[in-house]
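Hi there,

I know you've been waiting on this one. I reran it after we fixed the sequence typo, so this is the corrected version. Both the input and the resulting structure follow.
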Amino acid sequence: MKKEALVSQLQSSPLFHGISSESVSTLLNAPDTTTQSFKAGDIIYSPESTEKLLGIVLSGTAAVYSVDSQNGVLLRHFGKNDTFGLATLFGSRSRYISMVIAKKSCRVLLFAAKDVRALIESNQDFSMNYIRCLSDKICYLNTKISCFTAGSPERKLAFFLCTQSPAKSFSLNISANALSEMLNIGRASLYRAFDKFTEDGFIKKEGKNITLIDRDAMIEFYK
């Protein structure tokens, strides 16, 4: 990818929105900035990584998993312009606490902490973007906790759907396999929950297009 196209793509991302081409180019030209390619199944970043880095997905898809002694829980899928490492880049923990794995072939841009810090200190707009992205991730993780602790498959799915978009109608851009893994429920349970929501009149579903009839009533109904 040509540098001009890369700068333009980054400027279309939430993290670099409104940031000048000059500032983006300075970060791209830093000696420790690298672009790496990964095949499906490759580990992009993990607790074993020795350097704190900020990553942004340029193309392809990846997924982030929690890491524990038993099994990894799918936390989120990443696509074009999504970032990882925001929360741990300047944290007190010495290691990244999750594992990022390529789901399909992908290219990732990696920035060193010192270079990101320099841009934060010199550019107020970038600082606000960084804080905003962190806040969004915190809100997402709070939603994730609600889904995990919701109880029944129906309630887990209800919480998930109600937090996907403020709009009444939206497109669900995730496969059934990925969604069942994310909610930690079986695919059969997922399909039954969708059918039940439709039968009970809480949603309309056409393919991946979802319309929420009454999100508050749906949350209250499934306990």
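Quick highlight: Helices lie at 3-11, 21-28, 113-122, 124-148, 153-162, 176-183, 187-199, 215-221.

Best,
R. S.
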